[in-house]
Amino acid sequence: MRVAVIPGDGIGKEVIAQAVKVLKAVSNKYNFSINFKEALLGGAAIDVTGVPLPNETIEICKNSDGILLGAVGGPKWDKLPGNIRPEAGLLGIRKELGVFANLRPAILFSELKVASNLKEEVLGDGLNIMIVRELIGGAYFGEKKRIGDKAWDTIAYSVPEIERVTVKAFEIARKRAGKLTLVDKANVLESSRLWREVVNRIAEDFKDVQLSYMYVDNAAMQLIRDPKQFDVILTENMFGDILSDEASMLTGSLGMLPSASLGEGNVGLYEPIHGSAPDIAGQDKANPIAAIMSAAMMLRYSFNNEEAANDIEKAVARVIERGYRSLDIMEAKMKVVGTEEMGNLIANEVSKFQIFKKI
Ligand code: NAD
């Protein structure tokens, strides 16, 4: 397995070091080898090469099976022009890799319910929603123009663009609780009506998945009113951008949430949803769980290793159950640990699980 490791800036370096540690623990346990290759992106790349996305980084990523990315950006580079700022490197690498499906799980462990803004009776025994967002089409990439005192952006989608992300979403729903909700605005938008047609047709090949539809305004409300009704949500770029941030708040801390961006084949870019957090960088205060869970997603989606991915997720749950907390999720009577120690605890826990062999 070839993995490109891009720590990036700020806490990106600290949390990715922990994710690599956990990947090494799981690969030792199951006896497979991972070939890690480090690459520069964002501010770290600007400092060394003058550009946020060096060609060498693109090459390393394209020659890898999975890419593990920390975060980019920081005050040091904030005054640079837009096209050479760290964030341009991030958008650039997503585009270079053609990753069109963005997967954002919103997981709330039952032990962390106090970190959520929602009432306990709404959360039940925790949350586990997967948002699948189309990432490289729609209003953000459609034709845009400004003439005089008028401006417009276009939401344009073609059938193949909808098909490829829809198939991914159905495949994911099939591996989970088997429910898929298409979120759109088909009562008003023509592009949404096309989405419904395509999704409906593809549903014929996934009869084991229960498909439903919901308008985006209702979905925004239902996520707060009764989030447990959702399993997988499929939606277009802009709706997904907004809903996935809303869903992340249900779970309390940015430091807990991973993401995956997938393209054709098994290529995937895996990153925590948080940024480089300059306010806590270099202080061993960052929560590495989002990065570690991103590594688990890489094992699941790029390497089809469900067993190893589950082990990492179970190890995280176990460490939380045992009362260990990073500062962002700290509660009374729990044990606060730094970034490094949290990584060590999870890596040790991964190594502890038994491997049960089928006879
Ligand atoms: P941020 O996500 O970096 O931080 C927001 C707040 O959450 C901060 O108070 C931070 O301390 C806290 N936080 C974030 N991750 C945490 C973690 N793992 N553990 C504990 N606390 C955590 O967002 P921001 O402050 O708006 O942006 C800072 C920089 O990051 C900017 O330069 C921004 O452009 C960049 N950014 C990068 C990405 C990315 O690389 N994907 C995403 C968002 C922001």
UniProtKB/TrEMBL annotation:
Molecular function in Gene Ontology: 3-isopropylmalate dehydrogenase activity
SMART domains membership: Iso_dh
Sequence positions that bind substrate: R94, R104, R133, D217
Stretches assigned to the Isopropylmalate dehydrogenase-like domain: 2-346
Co-factor note (free text): Binds 1 Mg(2+) or Mn(2+) ion per subunit.
Annotated compartments: Cytoplasm
Broad class of where this protein is predominantly found: cytoplasm
Cofactor field: Mg(2+); Mn(2+)
UniProt keyword terms in alphabetical order: Amino-acid biosynthesis, Branched-chain amino acid biosynthesis, Cytoplasm, DNA-directed RNA polymerase, Leucine biosynthesis, Magnesium, Manganese, Metal-binding, NAD, Oxidoreductase, Transcription
GO cellular component: DNA-directed RNA polymerase complex
Residues that bind NAD(+): 74-87, 275-287
EC number, UniProt record: 1.1.1.85
Recorded metabolic or biological pathway in which this protein acts: Amino-acid biosynthesis; L-leucine biosynthesis; L-leucine from 3-methyl-2-oxobutanoate: step 3/4
Residues marked Important for catalysis (site): Y140, K185
PROSITE patterns reported in the protein's UniProt record: IDH_IMDH
Reactions the enzyme catalyzes: (2R,3S)-3-isopropylmalate + NAD(+) = 4-methyl-2-oxopentanoate + CO2 + NADH
UniProt-annotated binding residues for Mg(2+): D217, D241, D245
Assembly information from the UniProt record: Homodimer.
Function: Catalyzes the oxidation of 3-carboxy-2-hydroxy-4-methylpentanoate (3-isopropylmalate) to 3-carboxy-4-methyl-2-oxopentanoate. The product decarboxylates to 4-methyl-2 oxopentanoate.
Family to which this protein belongs: Belongs to the isocitrate and isopropylmalate dehydrogenases family. LeuB type 1 subfamily.
Official protein name in the record: 3-isopropylmalate dehydrogenase
